[in-house]
Design goal:
The protein has one domain. Helix content is about 70%, strand content about 0%. The termini are far apart.
Amino acid sequence: MPKVYYSKQEKEHVRQKLLESGLSLFSKQGYKATTLAEILQQVGISKPFFYTFYPSKEELVLNIMLYQQEILYKLLEKDMSKKNLSWKERIEKFLERYLYSRRNGLFIMSQAEEMEVFRHLGKEHYQQFQQEQKKFYGKLLERAELSAQRISPTVFYNLLHEILLCRNSAEQSMPFLFKEDVESAARIQLKWLVAYLEERHE
């Protein structure tokens, strides 16, 4: 028989498990290939109980993306603390974690997945998420010793995200790209981005 009452502490534990399990499954399998049932089975809760936390799978995705921000910031902290490397090498190391997101347990959606999630989101939640993203990428730039006056957080996000989106979407929704060279092109674009950031590094 399912548990009827959960304490506040137990609910916070369940919420944390939803974020952790969702991130793990989405990063390995992608958004579309991961069902809500899989996540709930891993966490050990029912669907009705899940809906007391999030109104939909898509809202869970948004919260996982926000949860992932903490992980990304810690990765940047780790790379920026490597004083034996030049500033450029430290930034390259961090951005490569994005490029090889699955290898690093990160969840980056494809173009088709983004559209699917977006279609099911309320306008207010989407706008709140965008504001949180803007603040976070400003925080990343600051930790990377880059002034917001010299590069906008939203420009930085767009430049980085366009590289990742193209790389992650080539297989499903960009048939006219030469798929065998998507990886090489993404690495070149990442180097251009690093060069652009280096010009703006004080």
